[in-house]
Amino acid sequence: MNKTEASSHRLPAIIIILIIFSSCNNTADTPFPEKQLGYSQPVTTPLVFSVAKKLNWDTAKKGGITPVIQKLDIDALPSIPYDSMGFRSFAQSAQEVRFDFNSLPGADFNLDKLPSKPLELKTFVLNPPALLKVSPPAPQKGKPLAIYDFGLAQGFQGKFIGALYKDHNGLLWIGGREGLFYYDGEHLQTFIAGSATFPPISGIVEDKAGNIWFVQAGSTNIGVIDRHNGIVSYSNRIWGVKNNISKMTLDEKGNIWLYNANDKSISIIDPIVRTYKDINNKTGLSDSTAFQVLEDNKKNIWITTITGGVDIIDVSSGKIRYLRKANGLSNDTVTAIAIDKSGSVWLATADGLNAIDVKNGNIKYYNQSQGIGHNYTFGLYFDDKGLLWRTTNNGIELTDVENKKTKHINKPDGLSADVVIALSPDIYNRIWLSSVEGGGVLGSTQGLNIIDQNGATVHPLGTTQIISLMEDAVSNLWVATQKGIYIVNPQRNAMRLLDKSNGLSDNFVQSFWKKNGNMVVATDGGFNLIDPVHKTILKAGRKEGLVSDTIYVAFSDNAGNIWLTGPSNGIDMVDSAKKITFHTNVAGGLNDNNIQDVKQDNDGSIWLATNTNGIDIIDPLKGTVKYLNNQPGLKDLCNRMLLKDKYGRMWIGTDKGIYIANTKNNTLTNISTKQGLANNTVLSLLEYNGSVVAGTNNKVNVITAPAPGDSDGQWKISLLDKSQNLIKETSSWSTDCITANGEYLWGDNGITVIHGIKATDDSTATLITGMNIMTQPQYFINKSGVGQKDTIRTADTFYIGKLPENWSASGSFAWDSVSGPYNLPINLYIPHNKNYVQFQFTQANSGRQDTTFYSYILEGIDKNWSAVTTNPYTENYLNLPAGKYSFKVRSKGIDGFWGRPAEFNFTITPPWYQTWWAYTIYLFLGISILRGYIVYRSRKLKTENRILEEKVAHRTNQLKQSIEDLKSTQSQLIQSEKMASLGELTAGIAHEIQNPLNFVNNFSEVNIELTDELKEELNKSSLSAGEKSSIENITDDIRSNQEKINFHGKRADAIVKGMLQHSRSSNGQKEPTNINALADEYLRLAYHGLRAKDKSFNATMKTDFDDSIGKIKIVSQDVGRVILNLITNAFYAVTEKKRAMQATEETVPYEPTVTVSTKFVKTPAGGMDVLISVKDNGNGVPQKVLDKIFQPFFTTKPAGIGTGLGLSLSYDIIKAHGGELKVKTGDGEGAEFTIILPG
Amino acid sequence: MKILVVDDEKDMETLFQQRFRKEIRDEVVQFAFASSGEDALRYLAQLQHEAVLILSDINMPGMSGLELLKHIKEKYENPPPIVMMITAYGDTENYNQAMKLGADEFLTKPVDFNLLKEKLKLKN
After folding, report:
1. What is the ipTM of this complex?
2. Could B111 and A1002 be called an inter-chain contact, meaning their C-beta atoms sit closer than 8 Å?
3. C-beta of residue A1219 within 8 angstroms of C-beta of residue A1233
């Protein structure tokens, strides 16, 4: 019982452990496959050349050359002003005046003491923002700056945009007449839809709680969007009149300062308690229309005014100070304000800019003297590089204060309109601008402009087509045009023109090659070698001995020989030292007469890029040529498309991508769009810093190849940062170069400079934008974000303290709150029957990338990150099992690097029957069932135990019985063994005894006869009667003795004969015998036999025969002998008893009875046995002799009466019949011998 | 009638002479004795057709009675002498073998001379 109790405690513990294990959901981080770049790796094949053959030079065209060498002093060429960036240096330094902040006039001012008034916001439900996929901003071509459009063409409907604001997520809020939008780079979310009559949003600010406040121009509305709670609230308590183009500013404490250009007050909103305070001329402000507000580094609040200069609330001293013209300002009309990195406060005044350095007590004036316009200023903004952006009613003025230069950006430069009313940077510090036509606030625009000041800057060269670019040893930029060469000195913003008039062979300049500080120039009039150090120019054309005038490429090899290509002209080689030209073409062994480019590899071989027949490689030492043209792509070569990289690999630009021939490893590698090349038509190949910069028909790639021999190395192919909008056309010339400073120069109608060649920009964030559950988009908001007493309105009704039913995601989902720009729910629980989930995501790239690669994983079900996809959504995850999940998505930046993943966690709740409480119930149920089972089982066990004990006792008895049986069987076995051996022994002995017995018996018999004869002879003799009598007496004695000898001899013979019966194998045949008749016959035989011997013998005979027995096959003689023997024994036993009783004069009546019975019985094995039983009521067999009765020679009869072989013999006979002889007896109770014979 | 008794027991001669003393005296029978099978064969070879009856033991050193029987029945075909086997080994095997070899009678020891005389038709 104790045992079962112990196990009933152990089992629940096991169940609990099982539950714990089964509820564990492994959400371990799956490492992102770092080699998964979204593109496959390039295909590398063996590099196979044709068999080299002899190259024959055209001896007919071999000739001497007499180049003309002239003086050329480039520095002496006339200098032309060159507007490298469009900036104009200040004509003169800014005027500086002293001022003392602390001595400024002022008044006491305590903001805290001013009364707070409730905003009395009216709250409305915020419709779930509609998500609209838009195209990235489009670059404007041919403009002298990197400027982009974002408008109707991109899917953005906004025309009048009054406010642009970057929030803490780095995403952009765009507000205007068309409503309030949120832009993540791929999608626009419409939070508030505008209309033709919608008062345009003119100011946006995010409070510290992440709520977005906005004002609407031309109304008294102040709104706040609480997207996590799904509501928008409006107040129009602040202003009595409609506001003008109001702006909003957040101070460090989190209060929002806003102005209304239509009145003289400033309002300060406490966004937490939703109250506001007004400050105006009555509370200490200047009696003027207050404009913009700025908080400086010392937490002073600066308020610009239209006529009163600037008011400064000195919070620390509890004062308001007035800084006006009288105190040092250049002008009292101040419309905009900004603060630079050093802490100087910049004011836009009617006459320019005032920079106020409070610490050093000075003010600098910037005005027309410096080139600063005096347009009306809407806003001032210092970008991340310290450039000051002034948005005005006449475009943008961009001022580099440090370098004392400024430039204007107007409509011709790409602005949509000149009245720029809103400006905001995006996360890449690109400047987003909104401009309107006609100077009116309600004018119209064509969307937004974005200026990327970080990326490319443009050196305008007018409409001059640039053919080629090359930087010389002293960082001058050589610009090949059809008008000669512009040699640009960017440092001095000056350029000089080198043309035919100065000694150039021709004004049409095809290309440059730089060699040992000299510039090799290919023109349409031959080639020039310009030595800037020795100030010479070498001229060689047809006149000077060349085959052709038009030179595409002039290449100077390591030996100083110059290789020249021209139209269908094969190749010319000028041995500069010997002044001899050599010529060859297809006739001499080349593959093509049109040679596009010439380069020399590290083995000294000259590689010729042919037009349509691959590469010809000339070994100048051996004078042989071989071809590389076994790839189809190699036959479509692009202009001047050979590059030898620093490892000596030859890069070949084709129409099928780039081939890289590695002569060391004999490999040829192909890179195409499959590997991430922007376009298969390669227009330029340049090497920079171990990478190859490849201009294609669409964008510029940076290719980083693994070092030769690094077989595991990965090819990394990404876009050149900031170059994504440099689109080259096949028709344009391949005109790019990389300067020693690492600037990528791209020539078109001007030179675009990309500062810094890199492909690294790991700031690209990925955002999860939403999720579909059961294929329905879900909108989540905070569930308890609305106050109990708040009234929430919709168009036609209102709700108290709650949102409309089913306003957000349906009630079967559970979440704590929402977060992030897309209201992602925190701790989302999805019921198990809504387990179809799909996610959407985006890359926060502000539209810089037109194809974004994503990879995602749903940890908890996915084993690996997904294959790279361009879809901004996942597969639909169907039938997610219950458990915790973590969704992660990452995107590949424009640089080719994968950014950090965005993560979203949620739980699929199990059905009730799999919940913890269900498990608890199961547990209790389990325990109860277990308990019940244990009780039942223990009861049953007890019962079974009892039964078992009984069974055991029973079986033990049976076992004892069988052991006893076994013992007796064993003893019988031993007995029978003994008897068998005895039988054999006695047979041998018996035979041998018969020989002597033969003599004993026969001689004794003869002696008897002889004594008789002796007596006869005696009677005949003459002896006396006395003598005769005495002799006769002796003879009689002898005769008597002989008779005794004969008697005992016969006795011995009987014994021996009996013994021999044992060994005698019966020669009797088995035949069907009526056993009843046999038994009856022998019973009578025995009785009469005994009666014949002993007349006094008398006994009762009883028979009980089973008539059903029929005949059985036995040796009837043998079995009869057995029966006879048994009956004789029985008769003897009863006679002995009677005699004994008579001797002791017992008075108990005794009837000697012998019963012979037969029975036909069924055996356990199924057969039939015949039982012949001989039963007497004599004294029985004493227990101590019971074992011995079947042994031969054992007898209880007196000597001479029995041989002791009867039972032994009987036993053998019955055994021989396959039967059994058994005895049942008790001392004094008679004996029953049973013969069992198989039937 | 001439009877050859073959037995390795020498006393058999005395026993037979005493048992048949009357018949010997009356010259109804004549006995010859051989102590082994070989002796018997020698005797038979010398005095062919003299013995009309042969009484032989079976268990004898050298040639057994059964071998002797075999020889006699093979050799003396016309007419074969009557051979009676007298043995202590009156078991079935011996009996069957003797009969198969053509023994005319099979008697067991101790010899019942009354029975023997009956068989020899000497007793009336």
Report:
1. 0.76
2. yes
3. no
Alpha carbon distances (Å) from A86 to A161, A458, A682, A736, A896:
28, 8, 31, 21, 32
Q: Do A1065 and B15 touch (CB under 8 A)?
A: no
Q: Are A278 and A266 in contact (CB under 8 A)?
A: yes
Do A821 and A171 contact (CB within 8 A), yes or no? Answer: yes
Instruction: For residue A995, give the nearest of B90, B91, B109 by CB distance.
Output: B109
Taking 3-state DSSP, the helix, strand and coil percentages for chain B, each rounded to the nearest 5, stand at 40, 20, 40
Instruction: Please state, in angstroms and as integers, the Cα–Cα distance from residue A921 to each residue in A25, A112, A833, A925, A935, following that order.
Output: 22, 60, 22, 6, 20
Question: Dmax over Cα atoms in chain B, in whole Å?
Answer: 38
Cβ under 8 Å to A: B residues 31-60: 59
- Distance of alpha carbon A587 from alpha carbon A597, whole angstroms: 19
Percent of chain B with pLDDT over 70: 93
Task: Please name which of A1046, A1028, A1010, A1222 lies closest in space to residue A1122, comparing C-alpha atoms.
Answer: A1222
DSSP string, A784-846: S-S-TT-EEE-SS-EEESSPPTTSSS-TT-B-SEEETTTTEEESEEEEGGG--EEEEEEE-ST
Any chain A CB within 8 A of the CB of B9?
yes
Lowest mean pLDDT among A458-462, A871-875, A1085-1089, B61-65: A458-462
pLDDT in tens, A749-758: 667 777 777 6
Mean pLDDT of A693-699: 81
Helix, strand, or coil (residue A321): strand
* B45, B104 Cβ separation under 8 angstroms: no
Residues 6+ apart with CB under 8 A from A472: A478, A487, A514, A519, A532
Per-residue pLDDT tens digits for B16-56: 888 888 888 888 888 888 888 888 888 888 876 666 788 89
* Residue A241 burial (CB count, 10 A): 9
Query: Is the CB of A989 inside 8 Å of chain B's CB atoms?
Result: no
Helix spans in A819-915 (H):
none
The structure's pTM equals 0.59
What does the pLDDT read at residue A276?
Answer: 92
pLDDT-derived band at A811, boundaries 50, 70, 90: low
Q: Which of A987, A998, A1064 sits opposite B110 (nearest CB)?
A: A998
Q: Is the previous residue joined to B110 through a cis bond, with omega within 30 degrees of 0?
A: yes
Distance from CA of A969 to the nearest CA of B (A): 31
pLDDT in tens, A867-916: 888 888 898 898 888 889 999 998 877 666 677 788 899 998 888 777 77
Cα angle B109, B115, B121 (rounded to 5 degrees) comes to 130
Residue B89 predicted with pLDDT over 50: yes
Span A531-541, pLDDT tens digits:
988 899 999 88
Residue type at position A878: L
Residues 6+ apart with CB under 8 A from A885: A27, A858, A859, A860, A861, A905, A906, A907, A908
Which tokens sit at A495?
Answer: 């350029």
Q: Which residues lie across from A362 on neighbouring strands?
A: A98, A357
Tell me if A994 and B110 make a contact (CB, 8 A cut-off).
yes
Burial class from Cβ neighbours inside 10 Å (0-12, 13-18, 19+) for residue A113 reads exposed
DSSP one-letter string for A487-518: EEETTTTEEEEE-GGGT-S-S-EEEEEEETTE
- Three-class DSSP category at A281: coil
**Is there a contact between A572 and A547 (Cβ–Cβ < 8 Å)?**
yes
Angle made by CA atoms A947, A950, A954, in degrees to the nearest 5: 135
Residue A622 has φ and ψ, to the nearest 5°, of: -85, -20
pLDDT at A649: 92
pLDDT at A1101 over 90: no
For the CA atoms of B38, B42, B45, B51, the dihedral, rounded to the nearest 10 degrees, stands at -80
Look-up: residue for tokens 């946006």? A204
